[in-house]
C-alpha cells in the first residue's frame, strides 16, 4: 500500500501509522503543537514564505498566518532576544537558527539570558522556548554550515539540549520540547532530514529526556546521537554479518544526560564505543567516557573508545568524508575494543 500523502492536511482522519521523513516529522510536529496551543509562535530567517531553507516550516505560514509564523531580520541575537520577551509574556516561541554556525551571534543571549532567567528570578519567571538548530555535516556545505556546537550548550546550566535521530522522535520530541517550561535547544541532524521512517501519531511517545536502546547486543555497546545513530546502526548490522553482536543506544538527550541505559548495557557487554561528529576534546563523548569509567569500572573489559570528528575547524566539502566518522572507523574501534 502506498504511503499516505503528507503535503497538506485533509478533512479525512489521517492514518495512525504514517511513513514520513525526519523533515516532515518535524513539520507535522510543529503543526500539531500550533493547533494544540495558540501561544506557539514560529520565528526565524525565511521560515515563512520560503518555509525555511530545508523546508521544515513549509506551509505553516499559509495555514496559521503571518502573526504566528514570522520572517525575521538576519539577526540571531535579535531573534533570541525577542523570543525571550515573548516567552516571559506567556507565549511559546520556536526559533529557527538557519545553520548551526549562525548561532554564535545569539550565543550571549542564550547563555547569559535564556539559560539564567529562571534561576535569576528564583523561579518566578519561566522561559518556555525552543531553539531549533540544524547541525552536522554531510551536505557538502561551506564554512559555518556543518558544525557540531552542541557541547557549548550542554555545558551551560539552565538549558535543556536534545537531538532526534529518526522520524518518530522528530515528530514527538519537537512537540514535547515546545510543551516544556524550560528552554530547549533542539538539534536536528540535517543530513538525515530526508530519511524515512514510520510514525505512529497515536502512540504514547518516550519521555523527552530519556535515552533508548535501539538494538540489543552482547559483545559491545555503541552509543550515539543525532546523525551518528544511523551510522551506529549500520555498523551493528555489518558486525552481525561477522558474528558480532553490538548493542546500540540512542542518547536523544544531551542535557540532562540519561546514562542509566548506557550503564546497564556496559555492565552486560563490558565494552563501549561512543560515536559523535563533534571534535573529541571537552565534548559530550568525553563526559560519557568519564562517567562510564567512573560508574562501570569493574564491568569494563576494555577502555572506553571514542570515534569522533577531528579537533580542527570543519574542513572544505572535498575533505568532509575524511573528517566525519563512518562505518569503517566505528568497526575499527569495535575491533580494537574486542581485541583488548
From TrEMBL:
The keyword Nuclease does not apply. Residues 20-195 form the Transketolase-like pyrimidine-binding domain. Keywords: Oxidoreductase, Thiamine pyrophosphate. Its cofactor is thiamine diphosphate. The keyword Transcription does not apply. Transmembrane segments: none annotated. InterPro entries: THDP-binding (IPR029061), Transketo_C/PFOR_II (IPR009014), Transketolase-like_Pyr-bd (IPR005475), Transketolase_C (IPR033248). This is Alpha-ketoacid dehydrogenase subunit beta.
Amino acid at each position: 500500500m502506498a504511503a499516505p500523502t503528507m503535503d497538506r492536511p485533509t478533512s479525512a482522519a489521517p492514518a495512525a501509522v504514517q511513513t514520513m521523513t525526519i523533515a516532515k516529522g518535524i513539520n507535522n510536529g510543529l503543526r500539531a503543537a500550533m493547533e494544540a496551543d495558540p501561544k506557539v509562535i514560529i520565528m526565524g530567517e525565511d521560515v515563512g514564505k520560503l518555509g525555511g531553507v530545508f523546508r521544515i516550516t513549509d506551509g505553516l505560514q499559509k495555514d496559521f498566518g503571518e502573526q504566528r509564523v514570522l520572517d525575521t531580520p538576519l539577526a540571531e541575537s535579535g531573534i533570541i532576544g525577542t523570543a525571550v520577551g515573548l516567552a516571559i509574556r506567556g507565549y511559546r516561541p520556536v526559533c529557527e537558527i538557519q545553520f548551526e554556525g549562525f548561532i554564535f551571534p545569539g550565543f550571549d543571549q542564550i547563555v547569559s539570558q535564556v539559560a539564567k532567567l529562571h534561576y535569576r528570578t528564583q523561579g518566578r519567571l519561566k522561559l518556555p522556548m525552543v531553539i531549533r538548530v540544524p547541525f552536522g555535516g554531510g551536505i557538502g556545505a561551506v564554512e559555518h554550515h556543518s558544525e557540531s556546537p552542541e557541547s557549548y550548550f550542554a555545558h551551560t546550566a539552565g538549558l535543556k539540549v536534545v537531538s532526534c535521530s529518526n522520524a518518530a522522535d522528530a515528530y514527538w520530541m519537537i512537540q514535547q520540547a515546545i510543551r516544556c517550561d524550560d528552554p530547549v535547544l533542539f538539534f536536528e541532524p540535517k543530513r538525515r532530514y530526508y530519511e524515512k521512517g514510520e510514525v505512529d501519531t497515536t502512540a504514547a511517545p518516550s519521555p523527552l529526556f530519556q535515552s533508548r536502546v535501539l538494538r540489543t547486543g552482547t559483545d559491545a555497546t555503541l552509543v550515539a546521537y543525532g546523525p551518528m545513530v544511523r551510522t551506529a546502526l549500520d555498523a551493528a548490522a555489518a558486525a552481525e554479518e561477522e558474528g558480532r553482536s553490538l548493542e546500540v543506544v540512542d542518547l536523544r538527550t544531551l542535557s540532562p544526560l540519561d546514562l542509566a541505559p548506557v550503564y546497564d548495557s556496559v555492565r552486560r557487554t563490558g565494552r563501549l564505543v561512543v560515536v559523535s561528529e563533534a571534535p573529541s576534546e571537552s565534548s559530550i563523548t568525553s563526559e560519557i567516557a568519564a562517567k562510564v569509567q567512573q560508574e562501570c569500572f569493574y564491568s569494563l573489559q576494555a577502555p572506553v573508545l571514542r570515534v569522533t570528528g577531528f579537533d580542527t575547524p570543519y574542513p572544505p566539502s572535498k575533505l568532509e568524508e575524511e573528517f566525519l566518522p563512518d562505518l569503517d572507523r566505528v568497526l575499527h574501534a569495535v575491533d580494537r575494543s574486542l581485541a583488548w
